[in-house]
Design goal:
Layout (H helix, E strand, L loop, with lengths): L50 E3 L2 E7 L3 E8 L11 E4 L2 E3 L5 E2 L4 E7 L4 E8 L11 E7 L15 E3 L36 H10 L9 E4 L53 H13 L3 E6 L9 H5 L36 H18 L3 E4 L7 H14 L17 E4 L17 E2 L2 H12 L5 H11 L7 E3 L2 E3 L7 E2 L9 H7 L4 H12 L5 E5 L25 H19 L1 H5 L1 E7 L3 E8 L2 E8 L4 E2 L6 E3 L8 E2 L3 E7 L1
Parallel strand pairs: 10-11, 10-19, 11-12, 12-13, 13-14, 14-15, 18-19
Antiparallel strand pairs: 1-2, 2-3, 3-7, 4-5, 4-8, 6-7, 8-9, 16-17, 20-21, 21-22, 22-26, 23-25, 24-26
Helix pairs in contact: 1-2, 4-5, 6-7, 6-9, 9-10
Length: 640
């Protein structure tokens, strides 16, 4: 609840958000030391606004279970408090109870709160009816690495294909025979019922906690076409549904411009209230949520295309032209492609849409779809807006090392991964070379483990160095990449193994390697925790299964859980430095160190090997003991 101004209890706070942030010295980000003594504001007192965001000056203070926000309107005219919306997360509050008309100041104080993310959102109007740019003040409250001590190096991410994860509410399922959806004859390409309610249910059941996961990447929540769609290949005559959420129609929607839509949220996934519930439930457990962000294109039905066709390129197929015409091609004949470089108004409209999504639902980052197919002008404008209107409580925007840093990870395949990794674009990309090398060394056995070692150690920090790429400088000190060995666009990892005479044991090697690769973010695709099979799209997007697992599926899930929780428990696996202890063609032992934390990892593609860690270390995976690393197994040795 919102309380009137008064004395806050003196609490044990590791860090006050109004002070310079405490950062990991090993990252050398240049941040100031933690607040001490007279340098720290007293949380029992108010604060004087010293940070500017749009037409507001504000300050904030926080402890382990309390926060204070003081925000003064400094723009033209006066605010109409009766027409102003004030929210903390999804809860709407009476703005008049915390507003001083004489000073045009909101004072919001909350104490005794549970650990979670708390974001103040002010959408104001002046007495003359002018809309004021919203003020968004996010704060993570609570001790520990899942809350106020989090950096994006600590992220352990699970990718959810919303329609294919869990059906928590069958009442919102689409009828696959409605309109012309009956033209989609392959059941694998039809809507299957997964939704927000299903994800929330699994959050509450602790499914992600058991995996050590603290970040969820969900499908784009924006409304899509509910009609059948043409294929990407110009020679494919089959029709497809938009279950994957890559055919948006409500792009451009904001709290001020609804484009005629009753809701901008995909109704097959649920309601706005259910999306709020999902995110709030995740936040209370110290989990971040990032949606797929689809802004390269829209589906032809989109109102923004109907109203502004001049904002889009004329039709050119991407099929066969992915690089030659990367900026102006259409993915399908029904997916108009934005011409951001030629239309600043389109950039402004879609950036405002992005800000609305984040501020409305309290998201923590974006997975930026098809980044290499968009003009740099849009990417830079998005980053600028995020810094100015979302990262309002971040002191150093060059690094994603503060709990409210907004992490953006792009998708730029075909050698473009480094290009967009810059301070004025995105902090990271999905690392295509990590995928290629992991698949070759651990799934298909096309490459030796020695070659994997030679790649992996320099790759841990490769993107923190600026290098020339496609005529630009890509990579910078604050880069944090996304590591993966499978996603919705690749042949399933287990199928890659099966196709080369292997089995589940190779999948488990990849799981262990993913969770023990430091400094970048492990991105585990749903189904790769149990071992789901599948060839190319749509076969690689099967419904997730939670019951009736085979012995091998359960062994794989157990391995993923142990590896993930070990990563969550050991800073060396998240933030550490990796060095080789022993490497052979088919056997690799490496050590990870961070401050006083040490972990040893063994990856064995060979026959039984003899190797033991120093005294006092035990294999947390339960595979290795007595100095033996069994054939086709992995071990994570931690101090007991």
């Amino acid at each position: 609840m919102i309380r009137p101004l008064g004395a806050l209890p003196v609490l044990l706070a590791a860090l006050l958000a109004g002070c310079p942030g405490s950062q990991d010295p090993n990252f050398d980000d240049g941040a100031d030391a933690p607040c001490e003594g007279e340098d720290c504001p007293d949380p029992t007192e108010s604060c004087t606004p010293d940070t500017t965001a749009g037409a507001f000056e504000f300050c904030w203070r926080q402890t382990e279970d309390a926060y204070l926000v003081v925000a003064t309107y400094t723009g033209a005219g006066e605010l109409d408090v009766g027409a102003t919306q004030l929210r903390i997360n999804a809860e709407e509050l009476d703005a008049s109870t915390v507003f001083d008309a004489a000073t045009q100041t909101f004072t919001i104080r909350e104490e005794g709160v549970a650990p979670s993310k708390y974001s103040v959102l002010v959408r104001a109007k002046t007495t003359t009816g002018t809309d004021v740019r919203p003020l968004f003040v996010p704060m993570w409250i609570g001790p520990g690495v899942r809350y106020a001590d989090f950096t994006w190096h600590d992220s352990i991410l699970y990718q959810i294909f919303t329609d294919r994860f869990a059906d928590g509410d069958p009442s919102n399922n689409l009828d696959n025979s409605q309109d012309d959806l009956d033209r989609v004859t392959d059941p694998r390409s039809q809507w299957q019922g997964g939704d927000f309610a299903g994800i929330t249910q699994k959050i509450r059941e602790g499914y992600f906690d058991e995996l050590g996961v603290n970040t969820l990447w969900i499908s784009s929540p924006i409304l899509n076409s509910h009609r059948s769609q043409p294929a990407v290949s110009t020679t494919d005559t089959q029709r497809y549904a938009s279950y994957h959420a890559y055919h948006p129609i409500a792009t451009g929607y904001t709290h001020l411009e609804n484009l005629g839509y009753a809701t901008a949220i995909e109704t097959a996934f649920g309601t706005e209230a259910e999306l709020h519930e999902l995110i709030d439930e995740a936040h209370t457990r110290g989990m971040r949520v990032i949606p797929d962000f689809v802004t390269n294109h829209v589906q032809r039905e989109a109102q923004i295309y109907q109203r502004h066709p001049e904002w889009f390129f004329g039709y050119n197929p991407c099929d066969g032209n992915w690089d030659a015409r990367r900026l102006d091609c259409w993915f399908t004949t029904d997916m108009p492609d934005f011409d951001y470089g030629g239309h600043p108004a389109a950039v402004e409209a879609v950036v405002d849409h992005a800000l609305w999504i984040v501020q409305e639902f309290n998201f923590d980052g974006f997975r930026a779809d098809a980044l290499k197919h968009m003009d740099d002008a849009f990417v830079r404008a998005l980053k600028t807006a995020i810094v100015e209107e979302v990262e309002t409580t971040v002191r150093d925007h060059s690094f994603a090392l503060e709990p409210t840093a907004f992490y953006m990870v792009g998708e730029s395949l075909g050698g473009w991964a480094r290009y967009h990794v810059r301070p004025d674009m995105v902090q990271g990309q999905v690392d295509e070379e990590y995928y290629n090398k992991t698949k070759a060394a651990l799934l298909t056995f096309d490459m030796s483990v020695r070659q994997l070692a030679e790649f992996a150690i320099p790759n841990d920090t490769a993107y923190t160095q600026s290098r020339e790429t496609f005529g630009q400088q890509g990579g910078y000190a604050g880069a944090i990449m996304g590591n993966f060995f499978g996603n919705h666009d690749q042949v399933r990892a287990l199928t890659e193994s099966f196709n080369r005479g292997g089995g589940y044991e190779r999948l488990r090697l990849a799981q262990t390697f993913l969770m023990t690769s430091p400094r970048n973010i492990p991105m585990l695709y749903q189904g790769d925790d149990i071992g789901t099979t599948g060839n190319q799209d749509p076969d690689n997007r099967k419904m997730q299964r939670f019951t009736g697992l085979t012995t091998e599926e359960q062994r794989s899930l157990d391995n993923a859980r142990k590896a993930g929780t070990l990563r969550a428990a050991h800073a060396a696996l998240r933030r550490g430095t990796r060095t080789t202890v022993l490497v052979e063609d088919w056997f690799w032992v490496y050590k990870l160190t961070y401050e006083d934390d040490e972990v040893y990892v063994a990856i064995n593609r060979d026959a039984n090997k003899t190797w033991a860690p120093p005294a006092g270390f035990t294999d947390g995976l339960g595979n290795c003991s007595g100095g033996t690393v069994p054939v086709l197994s992995s071990c994570i040795f931690v101090k007991q």
